[in-house]
């Protein structure tokens, strides 16, 4: 095969890859128009990396029109990532929190996880003030609760899309909160943290595959907005949202609810899938009412689930 033939085929492959990548990016940008398009919105980190690679390749091939298109795609992909990038090192290690810091751990334990002992050990060592667990089946709950002596207070919503919240602090209120008829049911726990009433809402939103599940997810987000606006005191909403910050539905819910993302400024660490980092996206979140300031947010270690736990250290603003 001649050098010219190799060069021509290389340009053709780069062109096809560039067109496919642009179509995926544009589909994500139009995600509010149809549920399949929204699925493409979640891979902005991967798009940015692939556009950068294509820009280098096409520059080496001296195909400058393609290189310009790749650089433009890179710029569009990377701009929404800036608020999440931080110069601070993100560590998965468990550090000792300061006395005035509220630590929250959120973890989708996975209903097929055969051994929750590592999860219990991690939670006990975390020194978390509250723990949100998702996909915790009744048999798993029976196994886990005795392994968490530091967390005697809890509320478990056992439905398929339910949640559980454990805490070491006295509980003022505990109830299940339906987010959509036939959809997810959140677990609400109001606890007394050093004399301050703090509400933690554990959520597991529907996986938006198919029109029915997507509609459930959108209804659940709307109810989260309504619920959050009605809470007068410090509020934390945490769990598996099954969508990333790059989705228009996520940004709209943040804007309307008045909540802010605890992860902003602390990196782009993935939370799912735990087993394959290149495809990793962040679908587990900790959202905060204006009374909270995020000190750090990071992911924890692999604990036998398809998710990684997230850890958020927070302070109440004076």
TrEMBL record:
<dbReference type="Pfam" id="PF03372">
    <property type="entry name" value="Exo_endo_phos"/>
</dbReference>
<keyword id="KW-1133">Transmembrane helix</keyword>
<dbReference type="InterPro" id="IPR036691">
    <property type="entry name" value="Endo/exonu/phosph_ase_sf"/>
</dbReference>
<keyword id="KW-0472">Membrane</keyword>
<protein>
    <submittedName>
        <fullName>Endonuclease/exonuclease/phosphatase family protein</fullName>
    </submittedName>
</protein>
<feature type="transmembrane region" description="Helical">
    <location>
        <begin position="12"/>
        <end position="35"/>
    </location>
</feature>
<dbReference type="GO" id="GO:0004519">
    <property type="term" value="F:endonuclease activity"/>
</dbReference>
<feature type="transmembrane region" description="Helical">
    <location>
        <begin position="41"/>
        <end position="61"/>
    </location>
</feature>
<feature type="transmembrane region" description="Helical">
    <location>
        <begin position="68"/>
        <end position="85"/>
    </location>
</feature>
<keyword id="KW-0255">Endonuclease</keyword>
<dbReference type="InterPro" id="IPR051916">
    <property type="entry name" value="GPI-anchor_lipid_remodeler"/>
</dbReference>
<feature type="domain" description="Endonuclease/exonuclease/phosphatase">
    <location>
        <begin position="105"/>
        <end position="307"/>
    </location>
</feature>
<keyword id="KW-0378">Hydrolase</keyword>
<keyword id="KW-0540">Nuclease</keyword>
<keyword id="KW-0812">Transmembrane</keyword>
<dbReference type="InterPro" id="IPR005135">
    <property type="entry name" value="Endo/exonuclease/phosphatase"/>
</dbReference>
């Amino acid at each position: 095969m001649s050098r010219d033939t190799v060069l021509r085929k290389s340009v053709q492959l780069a062109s096809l890859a560039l067109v496919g990548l642009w179509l995926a990016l544009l589909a994500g940008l139009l995600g509010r128009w149809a549920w399949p398009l929204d699925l493409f919105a979640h891979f902005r980190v991967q798009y940015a990396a692939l556009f950068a690679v294509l820009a280098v390749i096409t520059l080496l091939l001296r195909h400058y029109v393609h290189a310009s298109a790749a650089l433009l795609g890179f710029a569009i992909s990377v701009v929404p990532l800036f608020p999440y990038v931080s110069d601070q090192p993100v560590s998965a290690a468990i550090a000792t929190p300061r006395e005035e810091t509220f630590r929250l751990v959120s973890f989708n334990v996975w209903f097929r996880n055969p051994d929750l002992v590592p999860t219990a050990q991690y939670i006990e060592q975390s020194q978390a003030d509250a723990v949100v667990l998702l996909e915790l089946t009744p048999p798993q709950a029976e196994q886990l609760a005795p392994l968490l002596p530091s967390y005697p207070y809890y509320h478990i919503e056992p439905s398929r899309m339910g949640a559980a919240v454990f805490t070491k602090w006295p509980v003022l209120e505990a109830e299940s909160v339906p987010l959509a008829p036939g959809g997810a049911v959140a677990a609400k726990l109001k606890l007394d943290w050093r004399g301050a009433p703090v509400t933690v809402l554990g959520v597991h939103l529907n996986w938006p595959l198919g029109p029915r599940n997507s509609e459930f997810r959108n209804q659940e987000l709307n109810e989260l907005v309504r619920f959050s606006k009605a809470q007068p005191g410090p509020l934390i909403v945490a769990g598996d949202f099954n969508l990333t910050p790059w989705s228009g539905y996520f940004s709209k819910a943040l804007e309307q609810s008045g909540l802010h993302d605890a992860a902003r400024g602390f990196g782009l660490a993935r939370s799912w899938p735990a087993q394959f980092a290149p495809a990793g996206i962040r679908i587990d979140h900790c959202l905060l009412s204006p009374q909270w300031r995020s000190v750090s947010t990071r992911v924890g270690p692999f604990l036998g689930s398809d998710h990684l736990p997230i850890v958020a250290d927070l302070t109440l603003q004076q």
